[in-house]
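Q: Fold this one first, please.
A: Sequence and structure below.
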Amino acid sequence: MGEVMPKLKSWEVSDSFWNVVEPLIPPPERDPNKEYKRKSGGGRKPIRSRTIFEGIMFVLRTGCQWQALPKERFGSPSAIYTHFARWQRKGFFLALWQKGLAEYDDMEGIAWKWQSIDGAMTKAPLAQETVGRNPTDRGKKRHKAQYTGRRAWGPALDSRNRSKPARCHSTESSA
């Protein structure tokens, strides 16, 4: 029987995919005017690029917040985010997307002359029945009832001539 490969989790990177990704990763930024001296055993060891990339994939695949990254698996969440932001600025993700697109074009072929985007934005038909009114509208009073036998609400004085009382609209008849 054939050899059974262990199933990777959705954020884990296979060796074959890592071989494609690794050359695209930008090198660490270093100030050319500064001399770097590291004491033997001093400070934290840098996080491996593969671990950083898997941490980024974890956030993208699970939808969790950066600060919710498991420290035991990926290290400092803020360090992973810092690398993500730097790689994004350096164009790493665009280069990775272009590389994947070119590879797909070689395998399957992309009809570059004809592309279509389809989309629709409508309200969910059953949303009002299942969730009720919009949360921002739930406390608002809707149709205020009119008191019977009284005039409609209006200013007590005519807005143009403040010395003359306003006319009542609901009790007067137009003659």
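Q: Good. Now the second chain.
A: Here it is, same layout.
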Amino acid sequence: MPSQGKLYVVGIGPGFLDYMTIKAKEVILGSEYIIGNDLYLEQIKALLDGKKVISGGMGTEVEKAKKAVKLAESHVVSVISGGDANVYGMAGIVLEVAQKKGLNVEIEVVPGVTAATAVGSRLGAPIMGDFVVISLSDLLTPWEVIEKRLKSVASTDFVTIIYNPKSRKRNTNFQKAIKIIREHRSKNVPVGIVKNCMRDGENVIITTLGEVLEYDNIVNMRTTIIIGNSESIIWNNKIITRRGYHRKYTY
């Protein structure tokens, strides 16, 4: 029989509490233990009064997942993930650890607004059709694999969204990615750069593929980049990726 515990993995959205789902807030308020990265716990500190909080920095995901699984045997536990827990978030490792440990507790993943859609809203309508999301972090995925994926995507006309573009230790991956994409796409393709999306210090830049590296100095792990396709245009400081209405309708 299942125990009385429960384990939630909660996507808290991109930043400000206004952009968190009602369900996510309810789950956090109803949990005894809250486990997460220091940055994300800071974002939701207004919801943490009376909670038992376990925090950790980047690189402690496995340890946090193990603690959550152990506590969930007899407590209601929420593991916090920025954005959506399924998009480079905590859902995978928590479920992997639960599977390894044979956890006999109900697990629920609560979705959240991921950086791609949050950034898209700040830029206008840059996604609209088919798109691909690629992380440039090579901590868990070898760069050779990332580079192969970039080359495959760049040769198509997918809108391309880049997560985790640059950190202190891997400060050339973004430059290398742009060079690969430039081999296949026009230098005039619109590009949107959003740093600290929906958080304090938000910075939104609209440029082109030919000029995007002029902003390389502001790109870091809190930045998401959207690279348009052949249907993308810039209008009124917004990016619009036309879905095809202009070919079928008069407006």
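Q: Anything worth noting on the second one?
A: The radius of gyration is 20 Å.
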